[in-house]
Amino acid sequence: MTDRALAVVRAGALTTVQDLGRPGHAHLGVPRSGALDRPAADLVNRLTGNPPGAAVLETTLDGCALRPRSDVTVAVAGAPCRVTVDGRPAAWGAPLRVPAGALLDIGRALTGVRTYVGVCGGVAVERVLGSRSTDLLSGLGPPPLTDGAVLPLGRPTGVHARVDVAPQPAPPAELVLRVTPGPRDDWFTPHAVRTFLSRPYRVSSASNRIGLRTEGPALEHARAGELPSEGMVLGAVQVPPDGRPVVFLADHPTTGGYPVIAVVRTADLPAAAQASPGTPVRFVAVRRR
């Protein structure tokens, strides 16, 4: 077996392989998937000399621990966390050389939710429909990491960045999501639309890669009956029967039968990926382009 590999010592609560995802397959019922915090994934690739779109690891809340079989350059970004190599403190947000056989431990997120680990050469698991991403909804791509798994690495193609620490935005203390109203805002009472755009919500602990769920005032439907299933897009704010908005993230279903009251601007979704449970949420209307 090649020495260009990572052994998973501690998989953590949920660690997956992610790249740019597999957009363009919604007509087949396949979500786009991919890294939820795209800027953080792009950053660890730049820091390690990888091309855009190389596969990285996305951890959730409690990190992971890895042991490379050869000397590698890694970078850790996204949710701030403690990083150690064989128990010694190491850099977060900067290129880091990890010797063969050393234990790289990515600790629990101090703030935020998702931490990204880039490795020189990228994670070289098999592509499915052009992507190495794990899709939790459809099951495509590699399964979430488990203790003892071994991940192949590609060959380095570039030189890692020479920086002390790369600046990164902090996880949001308040999540402000700009939304374009519709396409089904007419399925809600005027009071419900005003409530949606003026009352605060909070991030629910039931959130995942499929959607950011919220807690707060329920939104009342103006119509009885059910909406026929229709296509769903990234950032769609769907309102299920309990009336609490759900913001669709990368692993969202490609169709749905609950009305969509608005769509979140794509630029605001990385912050949603880092909003921890209990974070206040505000939806702010912007004009249609």
Give a brief outline of the structure.
This protein is 8% helix and 30% strand.
Strand arrangement, largest sheet? 12-19-16-17-14-13-20
Mean pLDDT metric: 94
Number of strands: 20
As a percent range, the share of helical residues equals under 10%
Order of helices and strands: EEHEEEEEEEEEEHEEEEEEEHE
Determine the structural class based on helices, strands and strand pairing.
mainly beta
First and last CA, distance: 53 Å
Number of helices in the DSSP assignment: 3
Q: Biggest sheet, open or closed, and with what strands and sense?
A: 7 strands, mixed, barrel
Radius of gyration (Å): 20 Å
pLDDT < 50 runs, ≥5 residues: none
Shape: elongated
Name the beta content range: 25-35%
Protein architecture, described:
This protein has 289 residues and is mainly beta. The chain is 8% helix and 30% strand. It has three helices and 20 strands. The strands form four sheets. Strands 12-19-16-17-14-13-20 form a seven-stranded mixed β-barrel. A six-stranded antiparallel β-sheet has the order 7-6-9-4-1-11, with no helix packed on it. Strands 2-3-10-5-8 form a five-stranded antiparallel β-sheet, with helices on one face. It starts with a strand and ends with a strand. The mean pLDDT is 94.
